[in-house]
């Protein structure tokens, strides 16, 4: 399962540069770089989400960061990197974000090291995609306990990107990240237990870890949990979690919810609802959903503007 990079709320940053320079905060987050639940969004989408959900920044406070950066203070370097990444208080500029993050990252700042890993992972900010470089920066941040970097090390080892594929190493990093509460990693650990990858297959542990991710609103976790409950023929639970994931836009969950409506599993039998969800999934390229629509002569629904 290939993913693209995102940034995550970083607790050290909360008590560091943003707090120090007086940024007003919303909720418990600082900059939220949440791509949702493994939907495959890239750096731009993560930054857009951060702009909507994260921190209110004005140009005066960006000036404080510049002053601090001019004195070589890591908090200022880190703050500028994040502001340019999000386009808060300054025009969004991934290249400048890279330059400031590189300065802070070389000083050992884990948030900036993670940003650098993300930019190399996606090939943004004026650098070519380089999984080895991404691995290098993620490793530095992960060694400092950065849960998001630990997760992406797991991805690199799981996919064999920039490193030799190694399921045991992937599971190690996923587990560290999952134990720190990172939802994508919790889902990944659940999938490893479900598939028996690097560990003995264990449905109970799979349900436990997928459930932790699902409870955090992770769409992948909700889908996998629903799918596993379906295999156990616990249809009401299966429909509950799959439908939550489907509403968040997970195409596989949308296909599954359509099938459950078609068969009356965990919900009322409803052909119209089944077609509705298949059309949404097919619009995202889900071949199984498109095949079902074709069988019912409904494939033209995917051209409806409603499903764009």
UniProtKB/TrEMBL annotation:
Keywords associated with the record: Membrane, Transmembrane, Transmembrane helix
Domain of life: Bacteria
The keyword Transmembrane helix is assigned to this record: yes
KW Transmembrane (keyword) present: yes
InterPro entries: Sel1-like, Sel1_AlgK, TPR-like_helical_dom_sf
Segments traversing the membrane: 21-43
Name of the featured protein: Sel1 repeat family protein
Native source species: Akkermansia muciniphila
Organism taxonomic ancestry: Bacteria, Pseudomonadati, Verrucomicrobiota, Verrucomicrobiia, Verrucomicrobiales
